[in-house]
Specification:
- Chain B: Catalyzes the isomerization between 2-isopropylmalate and 3-isopropylmalate, via the formation of 2-isopropylmaleate.
- The complex is a heterodimer.
- By secondary structure, chain A is α/β, with parallel strands linked by helices.
- In chain A, 32% of the residues lie in helices and 18% in strands.
- Chain A has 16 helices and 18 strands.
- In chain A, the strands form 5 sheets. Chain A has a 5-stranded parallel beta sheet with strand order 4-3-2-5-6, sandwiched between helices.
- In chain A, strand 8, helix 6 and strand 9 form a beta-alpha-beta unit.
- The longest helix of chain A is centred in the first third of the chain and has 16 residues.
- The radius of gyration of chain A is 21 Å and the shape is globular.
- Helices cover 31% and strands 18% of the residues of chain B.
- Chain B is α/β, with parallel strands linked by helices.
- The longest helix of chain B is centred in the C-terminal third of the chain and has 12 residues.
- In chain B, helix 4 packs across helix 5 and helix 6 packs across helix 7.
- In chain B, strand 3, helix 5 and strand 4 form a beta-alpha-beta unit.
- Chain B has a single domain, classed as Alpha-Beta Barrel (Aconitase, domain 4), CATH 3.20.19.
- Chain B has 7 helices and 7 strands.
- Chain B starts with a strand and ends with a helix.
- Classes of the chains: A alpha/beta, B alpha/beta.
């Protein structure tokens, strides 16, 4: 069996499952945010005449309408707060960052778990070796009411990376490259990332790979749990009791895959996706010189402490180009604290970056940093669909935090590697 | 009863069906902006019983269910596409919005008149005088559709079993 099949088999109470089978699984953790969660669930739970199946296995994170900018968003946040209190939800995180990062930061993402999230980037949790999939509000209401759902066991695409990245190339470039290589039409499939390059990555970079499984159209993305996973969990005080059991989740040598691909990381250049889809990707030289109005570092995928440090390496001692603005929305309160402690924030703000509140912000089209008609932005976020980040005629390019920072300095899209020469990691 | 086809391409995402910056609006108002970024006239001209036709990965993107809600509120009879994004497909089925996976969707042209027979599993294109067959829904979902969607179905099941959630 594959890693994903093993996780699903356990949750379905079966010794084995095979891709294509429809099974019912018990959910280990269900979560949603202020936009997709309580305000949508409440009327449905009322219609069903039930409460939450297990308040200890339901987490709620307010990250979309934070902080409130008008009476409507304030009222959505208040509703979320009141719902969490009324239903005894202990794992309620109010304005401390984006759900996909806040939950792992608090030790709630455990290897081998089946996780249902009311957001399409739920697969990010697969970096810990979970089956984590996104659901809409009605599916989620049924899940938080019963603790179960059906699924069709996905086929797995295995992607192996070998070799080391050049300085200035990151997991984000891997995913933009894969969006072009594999396209977005991979529904009802899982993607498994493996190989020496992935084994050498820290959790932050693995989170990026799994997050953007959503852009591939996959229902989940996974990395097998290993010493890197266990070290992360130990460090945050949530050690894994059965490490041998977690290691045994790795795909069997004779596992069946829908496809297998191997790529060479050392040959990968920084990648940029053009408007209006993440599969419109080219190496950065293909977009060299595109003038930008705004550079945005934000979102679950692109504003972790590691992302801010990438940007700081480029920005330290430099200035954001006149006529260009650089906005940075750290992915969590913890990110901001860490960035403040280690000098990263200082490097960013000295360069002229504007610091925004932690949350989904402009990525979801809800918070500060939206674009005017005809404006061009380069962003460390995960998707660039038409009208997503504000005006319908705005253009959003996607890149790594290195590429976004380099564009902010130059005022146009440019190869970040040139700005990293001689800069210590 | 036939309806008119509104044809869109590949990768029609949920942001163009339910833009994030409008998500605070009541559902009916949000629906009036559905797909406006790529077809400003769609929400104004689509009539109850009409069809939305897409290419690959229809509904890619955010989990926001309002994408499917908006199409349903506008009276779209069914979405026909070569393939669907998983979350959109589940959302639509849960709400009782018919999604038909049909490779021949690529032959359907804008303004073709279509009619649908869900029982038999055929779609008739009056304009091109062509009949398309499609695979029925997986068996475990037909009961849910018959009950009017996931919540009514679950309500019935909970009542029948006296199940406590």
């Amino acid at each position: 069996m594959t890693l994903v099949e093993k996780i699903i088999a356990r949750a379905a109470g079966r010794s084995s499952v095979r891709a294509g089978e429809i099974v019912t699984v018990d959910i280990d953790l269900a979560f949603a945010h202020d936009s997709s969660g309580p305000r949508r669930w409440a009327p449905m739970l009322e219609e069903l005449g039930v409460g939450l199946w297990d308040p200890d296995r339901v987490a709620i994170v307010s990250d979309h309408y934070v902080p409130a900018v008008d009476a409507e968003s304030a009222s959505i946040l208040k509703f979320t707060r009141d719902f969490a209190a009324a239903h005894g939800v202990k794992n309620f995180f109010d304005m401390v960052g984006i759900c996909h990062l806040v939950l792992p930061e608090h030790g709630l993402i455990r290897p081998g778990a089946v996780i249902a999230g009311g957001d399409s980037h739920t697969p990010m949790a697969g970096a810990f070796g979970t089956y984590a999939a996104g659901y809409g509000a009605t599916d989620m209401a049924a899940i938080v009411a019963t603790g179960r759902t059906w699924l069709s066991v996905p086929k797995t695409i295995r992607i192996e990376w070998r070799g080391a990245f050049a300085d200035g190339v990151a997991a984000k470039d891997v995913m933009l490259f894969l969006c072009r290589e594999l396209g977005l039409d991979n529904a009802f499939k899982a993607v498994e990332y493996a190989g020496p390059t992935v084994e050498a990555m820290g959790m932050a970079e693995r989170l990026v790979l799994c997050n953007m499984a959503a852009e591939l159209g996959c229902e989940t993305g996974v990395v097998a749990p290993d010493a890197v996973t266990f070290d992360y969990l130990r460090e945050i005080g949530a050690p894994v009791e059965d490490e041998a059991g977690a290691l045994a989740l790795a795909s069997d040598a004779d596992a069946r895959y829908a496809a297998r691909h191997t790529f060479d990381a050392s040959a990968l250049e920084p990648q940029i996706a053009a408007p209006h889809s993440p599969d419109r990707t080219l190496p950065v030289s293909g977009h060299q010189g595109v003038k930008i109005d705004q550079a945005y570092i934000g979102a679950c995928v692109g504003a972790k402490i590691e992302d801010l440090r990438m940007a700081a390496r480029v920005l330290k001692g430099r200035k954001v180009a006149p006529g260009t603005r650089l906005l940075i929305a750290p992915a969590s309160a913890r990110t901001t604290t860490e960035a403040s402690a280690d000098g990263t924030l200082h490097a960013l703000t000295q360069a002229g970056a504007i610091l925004l509140p932690s949350g989904c912000g402009a990525c979801a089209g809800m918070g500060a940093g939206l674009l005017a008609e005809g404006e061009t932005c380069i962003s460390s976020t995960n998707r660039n669909f038409k009208g997503r980040m504000g005006a319908k005629s705005a253009n959003v390019y996607l890149g790594s935090p290195y590429s976004v920072a380099a564009a902010a300095v130059a005022g146009h899209i440019t190869d970040p590697r040139a700005m990293l020469e001689g800069v210590a990691p | 009863m036939s309806g008119r086809a509104f044809v869109f391409g590949d990768n029609i995402d949920t942001d163009v069906m339910a833009p994030g910056y409008l998500m605070k609006l009541p559902p009916e108002e949000l629906a009036s902006h559905c797909l406006s970024a790529i077809d400003p006239d769609f929400a104004r001209t689509v009539q109850p019983g009409d069809f939305v036709v897409g290419g690959q990965s229809f509904g890619i993107g955010s989990s926001r269910e309002q994408a499917a809600v908006s199409l349903k509120l506008l009276g779209v009879k069914a979405v026909i596409a070569r393939s669907f994004a998983r979350i959109f497909w589940r959302n639509a089925i849960n709400l009782g919005l018919v999604c038909i996976t049909l490779d021949e969707a690529r032959h359907i042209a804008a303004d073709d008149r279509l009619s649908l027979d869900l029982q038999v599993g055929t779609l008739f294109n009056h304009t091109q005088d062509t009949r398309y067959s499609f695979a029925p829904l997986p068996g475990h979902l037909t009961g849910m559709i018959a009950d009017g969607g996931l919540i009514p179905h679950l309500k019935k099941r909970l009542a029948a079993k006296g199940e406590h959630a």
